[in-house]
């Protein structure tokens, strides 16, 4: 199945002011001029013909190929992936611009069905690869250096070997994937179609979540209660989607004899389960030193006996309510990128100049933000819902970091460019850190520095603590679903079981907060995705500490890391920096940076 992009940022958007300047929109013509473009029809026709020809030429014959023949086969497969990815990128990006448009939804579904049908005959490719003997493959890699370049792809395919089903079953599951996509679309369209009314204003989910960052506490409370009411009114739909998706995953995992619900994600991330477990355990152990400690500080700053959920992302009392216009946001991020290395600014500039960013909040547009790499022969596209808060500037820095990473990795080619999720957040979180440090340098007063530090700590807690709590919720959800159907109340209870532990004793939880699992897209689109955020934040904190300790030559090593895409394992990529994510103490290095910021905030109180 060719995956569509989806909004992946935890919604922390900003003010609803319209005075933001000219917000850019996508120009998708670099993919295709329109859904009727002759080039698009030609690519679909080519895919239909080439997929059939590929199967005719190679099915049942992979074990007869020499190194040169296998390389030709791999390259043909790569071209099929490129054409299919281009079509689905165009269809998906158009859909996310306006998810409530029935013609766009139909176009995307039609493209997905065609490509699924065309590519079903190709299922044999990975199955037969996994039947080749290791010694035979190793000999072919030794004989042909160009083929050997693809070894990381072969390694990831062969990691699935123990969980492979019969050829017929694999084709059946490939075809059935379209049905699973329909549940994802139901989720997307339900979320995009939700209507909220706060203080007489009609809002979509992005605008309503945005009110949780307003200075006016009564407005935050009104938004939180409206979110709870609307989620409750739709909770049966969300529970049905989660039950169905989790059950489908359980059935496939059971047939594949995967040892856990998380195994598939770890395999696709090219990361060892014990590394993820070490990350999870380090973060959970640090809850009291991170979120509990910070939110106790924030409770005092806000002058509250207890914080409510609508206070979690509240601005501080001493914080100026300001709107950052689009041009100012661009200048802030570009200054930070250029100061680190002018090459980074050169790669980022076309995103602003050439219609590679869709920034505005519009009715029916998908919430959140993402950077979608499309295919290596085109360029990435960034989606934002920009509303002008400083946090939105950080989201721009984050997604632009993804874009820079995707541009640099494109030279690896379609099969090697895609970075496993554990490293996919590296450039994005590093871009945020560069932007934050540049803004911190310019703080004009102790109060301004305090506000900026607090904002960064909150973002890091949202990225590390909140996402690991999400991961624990998903682990509990999938384990519970294996025992039977879950009622909405069952899922609510699982959600609440991780909230108090992660946020700490400074919080009370309003009635209705138990439904807030309903709007998180990761749980539906990409189960267990969320730990990649914590992985990325911890990794970048350790990387940034290495940069501060030894800046000479760091940029070249950093660009080499990004250029590698998915061609190397995380151990090999981090070695030049003297870092090793499989070392349990590695995660403490990353968490200590967050603790250091909280130390500084506490010192300001003395």
- What's the structural domain tally? 2
In DSSP terms, counting alpha (H) and pi (I) runs of 4 or more, how many helices? 28
Based on Cα principal axes, name the global outline: globular
Q: Give the CA-CA distance, first to last residue.
A: 57 Å
**Mean pLDDT score, rounded?**
92
Structural account:
- With 606 residues, the protein is mainly α.
- The protein folds into two domains: 30-269, Butyryl-CoA Dehydrogenase, subunit A, domain 3 (Up-down Bundle); 276-604, Neurolysin, domain 3 (Orthogonal Bundle).
- It is built from 28 helices and five strands.
- It has helices at 38-58, 67-97, 102-119, 124-129, 134-143, 145-148, 151-159, 167-193, 205-210, 217-233, 235-256, 263-269, 273-286, 291-302, 326-340, 342-353, 390-409, 414-417, 421-424, 426-441, 446-463, 465-481, 488-503, 522-525, 531-549, 554-563, 570-574, 584-604; strands spanning 196-198, 201-203, 357-358, 370-372, 381-383.
- The strands form two sheets. It has a three-stranded mixed β-sheet with strand order 3-5-4, covered by helices on one side. It has a two-stranded antiparallel sheet with strand order 1-2.
- A hairpin with an 8-residue loop joins strand 4 (370-372) and strand 5 (381-383).
- The longest helix is centred in the first third of the chain and has 31 residues, at 67-97.
- The radius of gyration is 24 Å and the shape is globular.
- Mean pLDDT is 92; it is low at 1-17.
């Amino acid at each position: 199945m060719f995956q569509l992009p989806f909004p992946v940022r935890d919604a922390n958007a900003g003010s609803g002011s319209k005075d933001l300047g000219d917000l850019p929109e996508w120009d998708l013509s670099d993919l295709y001029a329109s859904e009727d473009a002759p080039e698009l029809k030609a690519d679909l026709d080519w895919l239909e013909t080439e997929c059939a020809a590929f199967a005719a030429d190679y099915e049942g014959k992979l074990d007869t190929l020499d190194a040169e023949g296998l390389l030709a086969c791999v390259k043909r497969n790569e071209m099929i992936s490129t054409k299919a990815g281009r079509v689905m990128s165009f269809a998906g990006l158009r859909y996310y611009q306006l998810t409530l448009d029935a013609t766009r939804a139909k176009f995307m579904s039609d493209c997905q069905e065609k490509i699924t049908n065309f590519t079903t005959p190709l299922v044999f490719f990975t199955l037969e690869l996994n039947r080749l003997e290791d010694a035979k493959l190793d000999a072919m890699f030794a004989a042909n250096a160009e083929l050997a370049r693809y070894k990381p792809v072969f390694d990831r395919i062969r990691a699935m070997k123990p969980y492979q089903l019969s050829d017929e079953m694999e084709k059946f599951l490939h075809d059935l994937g379209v049905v699973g996509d329909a549940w994802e679309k139901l989720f997307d369209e339900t979320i995009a179609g939700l209507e909220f009314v706060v203080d007489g204003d009609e809002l979509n989910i992005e605008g309503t979540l945005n009110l949780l960052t307003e200075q006016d506490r009564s407005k935050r409370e009104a938004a939180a209660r409206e979110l709870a009411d609307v989620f409750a009114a739709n909770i049966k739909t969300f529970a049905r989607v989660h039950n169905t998706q989790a059950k489908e995953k359980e059935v496939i995992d059971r047939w594949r004899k995967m040892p856990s619900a998380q195994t598939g994600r770890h395999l696709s991330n090219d990361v060892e389960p014990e590394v993820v477990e070490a990350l999870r355990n380090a973060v959970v152990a640090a809850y009291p030193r991170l979120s509990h400690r910070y939110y106790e500080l924030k409770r005092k700053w806000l002058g509250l006996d207890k914080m409510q959920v609508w206070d979690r992302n509240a601005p501080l009392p001493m914080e100026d309510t300001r709107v950052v216009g689009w041009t100012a946001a661009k200048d802030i991020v570009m200054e930070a990128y250029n100061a680190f290395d002018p090459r980074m600014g050169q790669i980022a500039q076309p995103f602003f100049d050439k219609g590679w960013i869709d920034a505005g909040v519009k009715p029916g547009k998908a919430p959140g933000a993402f950077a979608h790499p499309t295919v290596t022969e085109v360029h990435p596209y960034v989606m934002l819902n920009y509303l002008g808060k400083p946090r939105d500037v950080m989201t721009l820095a984050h997604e632009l970091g993804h874009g820079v990473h995707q541009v640099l990795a494109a030279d690896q080619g379609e099969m090697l460019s895609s970075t496993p999720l554990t490293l996919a957040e590296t450039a994005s979180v590093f871009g945020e850190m560069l932007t934050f440090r540049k803004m911190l340098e310019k703080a004009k007063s102790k109060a301004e520095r305090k506000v900026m530090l607090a904002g960064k700590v909150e973002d890091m807690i949202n990225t590390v603590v909140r996402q690991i709590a999400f991961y624990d919720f998903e682990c509990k959800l999938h384990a519970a679903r294996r025992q039977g159907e879950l009622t909405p109340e069952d899922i609510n209870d699982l959600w609440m079981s991780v909230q108090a532990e992660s946020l700490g004793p400074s919080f009370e939880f309003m009635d209705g907060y138990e439904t807030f699992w309903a709007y998180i897209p990761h749980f539906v689109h990409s189960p267990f995705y969320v730990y990649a955020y914590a992985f990325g934040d911890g990794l970048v904190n350790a990387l940034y500490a290495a940069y501060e300790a030894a800046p000479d030559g760091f940029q070249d090593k950093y660009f080499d890391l990004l250029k590698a895409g998915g061609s190397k394992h995380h151990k090999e990529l981090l070695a030049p920096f003297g870092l090793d994510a499989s070392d349990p103490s590695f995660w403490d290095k990353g968490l200590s940076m967050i603790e250091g910021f909280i130390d500084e905030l506490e010192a300001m109180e003395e």
